[in-house]
Amino acid sequence: MMQRAHSLPLASKIVFMDNTLSCDSENHAITFLLTPCEAAAVPLAVFITSGQRQADYETGFSLLKEAVGENLFGGQHYPEVFITDDSLAEQNAIKSTFPDSGSKLCLFHVAQAVWRWLWNSANKVALGDRKTLMQEFQSIMRSSSVEQAELAYKEASDSPTSKKYGNWRTYLQRHWERRELWCIVWRGAEMCGNHTNNYAEITVRLYEDIVLSRCKAYNVMALVDFTYTVMEKYYVRRLRSFANSREVVPRLLLQALLKTAEYLNTDNITRVTTFTNLVPSEKNDEKYEVDISVGICMCEAGKHEKFCKHQAGILKCFSLLPPNAPGVTAEARHRIAVVALGDEAEPLSFYHPLRNGGDQPSQINTVDVNDSTVRSHSDECNIETNETEEEVPLRDWF
């Protein structure tokens, strides 16, 4: 299943990396590599090493290359970016093994580390000043432009509260020197809307709770056995549940976003090209450029290739589904079924709607990025219809 997961579209873009200890009597380190997909995240590899040194990670990466071969990370042989904790050993191993890959830090863990530093009694930061300093740091981290980030850093360094603590200013300067790792403005569409390592954190919890049943394995061989059998069966079962439309989260998420896009209609959206549109903001007179072929919007969320309400408005008005939308289509469910079952998966036609009714997503147009054309589910199913593409409204799928 993990080898097949390397063929997922986002496996060549973004990979989450995290590890855990104390899972067996010898305290081996277990490292997970995951990639996001329509069914949350699936593992690409699991390393079991004696420690958390750079050499351990480099050995794991080398074995991964040998095991997967030409299909490694979607055939690209490296992902565009790794999201990790603030571990120097992990970052150095990534840099030496995959020099073409970038490395970013989980924003949650960065903020958590700063908050712990402020609460450390050895740093002697007054209780009333901790919240102020934390807010100043977050203003740097959440800046939307380079100029805004530089201004926020200058204000944080020269603020009256910051001047009370020389150790804080030194700590802040060390963080600023590697700002490309944790500041949002130095991140792009390769992040696919992900800025934290939460998928990996959840995977660690699932491994300890479900795979190991909250018990320590007897030795490393038992860990390998549990990973190969119990973990494999768990993910196959979960992916099959998604492929068979038994997971409602994607549909509920799409419903919620479509509801936020109710203010949009065909009159206030300006179509520039077939896939490029100008969508007005709900709060002001600003207009955001949306490229539906790659799923990018110029709003704060859409810049990082996250499916936003402006893209949902394009879907509502023109029935064009971007590639980063929630997995509600037959193609998405079939892709997950192939990851779970391989050659035993049913053909794509098995996952199409049984009827061309108003409650089925049979009239959505999906964007094929490879040939830049629009394909209709009705055309794929050879269903005859007299409606033109412009006249087809967005159905009530749910």
Concise account of the structure shown:
With 398 residues, the chain is an alpha/beta fold. Helix content is 40%, strand content 15%. The protein folds into three domains: 2-106 and 196-243, 2-Layer Sandwich (Nucleotidyltransferase, domain 5), CATH 3.30.420; 107-186, no CATH class; 249-380, no CATH class.
What are the key terms here?
single chain; 398 residues; alpha/beta; Nucleotidyltransferase, domain 5; 3 domains; 5-stranded mixed sheet; 4-stranded antiparallel sheet; 12 strands; globular
Description of the structure:
With 398 residues, the protein is α/β, with parallel strands linked by helices. It has three domains: 2-106 and 196-243, 2-Layer Sandwich (Nucleotidyltransferase, domain 5), CATH 3.30.420.10; 107-186, no CATH class; 249-380, no CATH class. The protein contains 13 helices and twelve strands. Strand 10 (320-321), helix 12 and strand 11 form a beta-alpha-beta unit.
Q: What is the name of the CATH architecture of the largest domain?
A: 2-Layer Sandwich
In one word, what is the shape?
globular
Total discrete domains = 3
Please write the CATH class name of the largest domain: Alpha Beta
Strand order in space, largest sheet: 3-2-1-4-5
Outline the biggest β-sheet.
Answer: 5 strands, mixed
CATH-defined superfamily of the largest domain? Ribonuclease H-like superfamily/Ribonuclease H
